Amino acid sequence: MRERRIQSSRGVVYYWKNEMVASNKFAIVFCHGLTADHTLFDKQVDHLKPEYPLITWDYPLHGKSRPYANFSFKNVNEELLAILEQERIEKIVLVGQSAGGYIAQSFIQEHGERVIGFLGIGTTPFGKHYYKSSELFFLKHYSTIARLYPYRYYCKAVAKSITVSDEARESMYRSLVKLGKEGMLNASSAVYGEFLKIEDEVKFNCPVLITYGEYDHTGYVQEYCNRWTEKTGYPLKIISNASHNANYDNYEEFNHLLIQFVQSIE
Fold first, then answer.
1. pLDDT band at 135 (very low <50, low <70, confident <90, very high)
2. Which of 115, 206, 225, 259 is most buried, by CB atoms within 10 Å?
3. What is the mean pLDDT of residues 83-95?
4. Which residues lie below 8 Å from residue 219, measured CB to CB, with a gap of 6+?
5. Is 219:135 a contact under the CB 8 Å cutoff?
6. What pLDDT, on a 0 to 100 scale, did the predictor assign at position 146?
7. What residues contact residue 133 under an 8 Å CB cut-off, 6+ apart?
8. Which residues cross the membrane (predicted)?
């Protein structure tokens, strides 16, 4: 994967793209979760890079894409659109893990004509009617609560709570340590602040697949995903032997699901 970047008045955003492959009808774009970075999808890149154009990125306030001014979902959409224009990519399949699913849903709301498929991993839907007020209250005050913990303890606790495999846990721990406490607080406050502004759910004009890990006990993820699929009819797949970072915990099963999903679109 070749590192590239785009720049605006808000900051520099870094992304990674593989060399040209035989099929260039569309690219698969991976959006990592809150306080993670592009390495969350290393196992997908290793498996898929010979076959499909891939883009991973550190979306603003994460990984190398710091500092960044005026974070908003709209501005993040502009950064992703600029990446697609720079790479001359017309259509994409969006894969979003956790809060990366919020980034993906926001992009679909604004630029749905560019998206031919959405796969969510442990993410939850836009639309306030899905959520309990207690959960929204927690998200609003997450940064205040997280600030109270010694950061090394926080990194270990979070990495352990959202993974089941040692390799996935170590990967998430490294991302958190690199981000640093102030980086974590800034990212959490910005992303959750934007999410709390969303009132309406997304109207998808593309195939959708919802997934979560068998052992994902992060917040109410399982409950909200089940409600999402019950309300909309979107297919749901539960990834065995996996927690919140299911695509890393059980990457073999997830990669199989992802390839099936992409092939159904092709």
1. confident
2. 225
3. 95
4. 135, 138
5. yes
6. 87
7. none
8. none
Q: What's the pTM?
A: 0.95
- Tell me the average pLDDT across 91-113: 97
Is residue 6 classed as helix, strand or coil in its secondary structure? strand
* pLDDT at site 23: 56
Is pLDDT of 20 > 90? no
What is the average pLDDT across 58-77? 98
Instruction: Determine contact, residues 143/185, Cβ cutoff 8 Å.
Output: yes
Mean pLDDT, rounded, for 30-34 = 98
Structure tokens at 208: 């959708």
Sheet holding 208-213, edge to edge: 2-8, 11-17, 54-57, 27-31, 92-97, 115-121, 208-213, 236-239
Please state, in angstroms and rounded to a whole number, the distance separating the CA atoms of residues 10 and 167: 34
> What are the residue ranges of helices labelled H in the chain?
42-48, 73-87, 99-111, 133-140, 142-146, 151-161, 166-179, 181-195, 221-232, 246-249, 251-265
Alpha carbon distance 264, 193 (integer Å):
35
Return the structure tokens found at 145.
């609560």
Rounded Cα gap, residues 92 and 104, in angstroms:
11
The residue extents of the domains of the chain are 2-265
Q: Can you name the residues that pair with 239 across neighbouring β-strands?
A: 213
Q: Which of 179, 178, 176 is nearest to 158 (CA)?
A: 176
CA angle 228, 231, 232 (to 5 degrees): 85
Topology (CATH level 3) of domain 2-265: Rossmann fold (3.40.50)
